[in-house]
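Hey L., structure's done. Input below.
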Amino acid sequence: MRSPLQITYRHMDSSPALEAEIRDRVEALDQHCERIISCRVVVEAPHQRHRKGTLYHVRVSLHLPNGDVVSDHEHHGAHEHEDVYVAVRDAFAAARRQLDGEMRRHRASSKTQPLRD
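Output:
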């Protein structure tokens, strides 16, 4: 990755353990695809006025030479996302799937087409 990782926390405090987890997952994505220029991760807890458990929302934005990959899936009612580490895991899994699709499209578009008579 050419630019440094940017991690933003909203409505919550950061933690060294969570930051290390995010950095490990970004490193894995960077090993998977060298074309990543930059990465921005936003970890958000909803406002404290919610009555039920806190459902964390994690957004992963990857900037590539030919476009962006953004994992921004809302997990309404997914009670497993009351654990911020599970929310991080799922967001990075979705980003990896989208990155794989982008890599497949890039490879398909870069193949040369045979000349026809």
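The chain has one domain: 6-110. The chain has a mean pLDDT of 85.

-- N.
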